[in-house]
Amino acid sequence: MTQQERQADIEAILSHRRDNGGDFWATADGRLLKGAPFSTIECAGYLVELGLPPEDPVMLATAERILQAWREDGRFRVYPQGVIYPCQTAHAASALCRMGYASDARLQKTFEYFLDIQYHDGGWRCGKFSFGRGPETEYSDPFPTLTVLDAFRFLEGYESIQLLDRAVEFLLFHWTVRRPIGPCHYGIGTLFMQVEYPFRGYNLFHYVHTLSHYRRAREDPRFQQAFETLRQKTVDGQIVVQRVVPKLAKLNFCKKGQPSDAATQRYREILENLEK
């Protein structure tokens, strides 16, 4: 992807910054995860993938908008009313960490919050039973768990936090059972196995990339199987996007059916982690 194409993508994303009624992709009443795929938290992630530096005025303003949602107990209120679910805080924390804020004192409190509420199976769950209750809902939610681990990988010394090994084990367990589990019914099936980019949901590429940062995962045959599944989908060492949300389909960095330089860079990070 050329610099001109990269800049075109950045400008295209910025063109939506007031679509939801507020600024920087927020709604008029301050919702930061509303208006997918052009919500505040999602767009912050896209701009990181496109290489916009943390000191860029747009990035600074977007980070500040997300930090305004931080609460003293470490949670993020990304919606003005209602229950604050752990997954919402996880998405906000992950975005801020990728933007360079992992050492911020507020994020330190958020990390403590996650360790305090870790579920007995090692993951994190939101307790919102949209699909009713059953034996499968007694587990944590895989995607929020993956998102929490994605945030923690930016924390200095994270590999020494043994509680995170339990979270890794939970996700490796899910690779084996495959079936939908957790209150939100996250499963591993056909859609999971498609290479989706940018990272927006629970899928193979996101799963392998995040877990590759954890020694506990890298040494496990289940992770190695997941990585090999991803590797077999590459073409000449490049990531070819198999699935992208339609509203992002025209952007250069994530065109369906084509190699993506940005996605391939994330794949190379996986390879670098495997060499540790």
TrEMBL record:
InterPro entries per the UniProt record, alphabetical: Terpenoid_cyclase/PrenylTrfase
Gene3D superfamilies: 1.50.10.20
Descriptive protein name: Terpene cyclase/mutase family protein
Organism for this UniProt entry: Feifania hominis
